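User: My collaborator and I are trying to settle a disagreement about how two of our proteins should look. Neither of us wants to argue from intuition anymore, so we agreed to look at predicted structures for both before our next call. Could you fold the first one, then the second, and keep them clearly separated?

Assistant: That sounds like a sensible way to settle it. I'll keep them separate. The first protein:
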Amino acid sequence: MLQTCGHFGRRLPMDFCGDLFRRLSPMVTSSVRMAIEGSSSPVGAPPSWLRRASDVRVLGWEESIAGGTILHVEAPTLGEAAEEIYRQQTLWDTKPAPEDTALNVFARAAKEVRTGNPDSSLYDLGLLKRIGHSERLFGQQVEFVEVPETRAANSTLARLDREIAVRAHQLTEQTPASRQVRVSGRLDMIRHSTRSFEMLLEDGKPVRGVLENADEIDRLKSLLGKSITIVGKAIYRPSGSVLRVDAQGVDERASVSKLFARIPPPISRRVPSTRVHLGDQHKGWLDSFFGSWPGDETDEQLLAMLREVRG
């Protein structure tokens, strides 16, 4: 469903259609990649299953009672488009149902952004920025776009409008910067087709990972069930919790230091200027901006960490 400011109905201008679909398509593709791979924009060419899943075709349109435009589209189910992935063991808890389409996945991700869920696993910073850029669509020609969350005829609709674009900007500002980390744990699961894996930390918490180098995934097969150490970038949610680790390298040995048995919190957040005040009445302003520093590590622990990082 598309509601336009000009009430185009079934008579859509050609340049308008081009701009609309050119902005929607990357958001749909990124949503599917996020749900299945755990990252909306990894390095490398898009896999063949993603191209098939994102192949949405417009069949026609008609005018709604309110003067809007109802688009009739066709999209393959994910079970058909990514059959090789759905034959494998489930990895991410966000993995869509095989009967879902790319549009359904995008609708649910958009709904999470609209509600402002800071702990969602359906989006990351890359997808937030794409949704935020959609703000240019609204206010001039488009009032809103509605997308069904399921294939059912009575499915609830997720609305894409200026409000969701503004919320995406807010969540982007709340998301901490990534940081370089070194983490040890037991390799619990791997998925070759998406270069993804899961490891369990000492406290039993699972950590998602995506390998930047596809060649590393074959080496992981022999390490399944063993303790390993990964080096990479920790990617955080707006809440500050860890979303995943983009792994740049894998060491077959586990670190002996307990400091690498957990993923450290973000170094800093993007803090609105209204939270930073000067003056005696706000002596804690430095901590509010940079977070607690020093943390709960002792000087000896910090020195040990530096020695291990340097080898």
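The second protein, kept apart from the first:
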Amino acid sequence: MSAETLEPQPAAPQPRACLVTLGGQLYAVEVRYAREVVVFDEYTDVPLAPQYLLGLANLRGRIVPLVDIRPLLGLEPSRATRRAKALVVERGATPAALLIDEVVGLEPLENLAPADGEGSGFGQGRLEREGGAATLLDVSRILAALAGAEN
């Protein structure tokens, strides 16, 4: 028998969430889907587009849809101006720039409770935190709903 020396394995990184506000409410998106926060000074309107599609924006040569997900979440649509702050999310090869009000910060994805019906079926849980709970958004479901609405 030979004794093997076990080297310590690096700890798996703690999953985190990006916290944002939409319509005065707190939401969270898993960091693995969040690419960046951008401010679009301009975007191109799309004639006859669904209400949620504010337009198309150029993100360093890549065209991404700029969408207002508030109605999907049961909130009033945004009164968007030509300047739009967005959280760019991506699942697989499907990107979207989600219109947001503000970025609150990053927090560990711990103390996750089951969804309590908020988010109109687009929440996958509640992130319990000291400053108040945040609805964890299901990015896959949101992107699928947006893709389905386009057809």
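Some points you might bring to the call about the second protein. The chain has a mean pLDDT of 85. The chain is about 10% helix and 45% strand.
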